[in-house]
Amino acid sequence: MNIRTETVKAEGFTLAQMVWALLRRQPEGYVERVLGFNPGLAWLGPFLPVGTIINFPLDDIDPVQTSDVVYLWD
Questions:
Q1: Does the pTM of the predicted model rise above 0.90?
Q2: CB 33: neighbour CB atoms within 10 A?
Q3: Which residues pair with 54 in a beta bridge?
Q4: What are the φ and ψ backbone dihedral angles of 3, each rounded to 5 degrees?
C-alpha cells in the first residue's frame, strides 16, 4: 500500500484542507477514508493540533477527472 505521512504545521487546519493541500482536489469519500485509516483522528476536533501526524492512503484514488469549461460570457 502506498502511504504518505504528513504533519500539521500550522494552526487552524482541517482534514479537508490537508487533503486539498496534498491532492489539489477532494475525491469523493476520501476524508472519511483518511479518518478510518487514522484511528482517533476524529476525536481531535475539527481543527487539527499542530504536530498531528496523518497517514494518507494513496492507493485507489480516482484519477483527476476533467470536465468541460463553461464560460459565462463570450
A1: no
A2: 16
A3: 6
A4: -125, 140
